[in-house]
Automatic annotation (TrEMBL):
<feature type="domain" description="Protein YjdM N-terminal">
    <location>
        <begin position="11"/>
        <end position="37"/>
    </location>
</feature>
<keyword id="KW-0378">Hydrolase</keyword>
<dbReference type="InterPro" id="IPR013987">
    <property type="entry name" value="YjdM_N"/>
</dbReference>
<dbReference type="GO" id="GO:0016787">
    <property type="term" value="F:hydrolase activity"/>
</dbReference>
<protein>
    <submittedName>
        <fullName>Phosphonoacetate hydrolase</fullName>
    </submittedName>
</protein>
<dbReference type="Pfam" id="PF08274">
    <property type="entry name" value="Zn_Ribbon_YjdM"/>
</dbReference>
<comment type="similarity">
    <text>Belongs to the YjdM family.</text>
</comment>
<dbReference type="InterPro" id="IPR004624">
    <property type="entry name" value="YjdM"/>
</dbReference>
<dbReference type="Pfam" id="PF03831">
    <property type="entry name" value="YjdM"/>
</dbReference>
<dbReference type="InterPro" id="IPR013988">
    <property type="entry name" value="YjdM_C"/>
</dbReference>
<feature type="domain" description="Protein YjdM C-terminal">
    <location>
        <begin position="51"/>
        <end position="120"/>
    </location>
</feature>
Length: 120
């Protein structure tokens, strides 16, 4: 059993990794090799990530959005058309700029960029 619990786990201030260890009074990140003194860095406060749509409205989990341009989908013969409503979105840190996880009717689950949707 590990003596480090999720409540006391220190995240790296440089890369955010949870894979850290103590070495000679310093805390070291095993992912990026950043070293810091626990006294130098205040406890990390989880900052809420702000995701905005194509016109600048702030998006939140559970919002309904509308697609603002035709989107080609790999492996599909048709595109997601302008005006398609997507309900109950979930904000994630996806691959690249894809920060919305959703289910589009007729296409299934996928990730979208916030720059191609507008809050409904």
């Amino acid at each position: 059993m590990s003596d480090t619990t999720p409540e006391t786990q220190v995240h790296c201030p440089e890369c955010g990794s949870e894979h850290t260890y103590e070495l000679g009074g310093l805390t070291v990140c095993s992912m990026c090799a950043f070293e810091w003194s626990p006294d130098d860095v205040a406890p990390a406060v989880e900052q809420a990530r702000v995701v905005k749509d194509s016109v600048g409205n702030v998006l939140a989990d559970g919002d309904t959005v509308v697609v603002v341009k035709d989107l080609k989908v790999k492996g599909q013969a048709t595109a997601i058309k302008v005006g398609t409503k997507v309900r109950n979105i979930r904000l994630v840190e996806g691959v690249g700029d894809h920060d919305i996880d959703c289910k589009v009717d007729g296409f299934g689950p996928m990730q979208l960029k916030s720059s191609v949707v507008k809050k409904a």
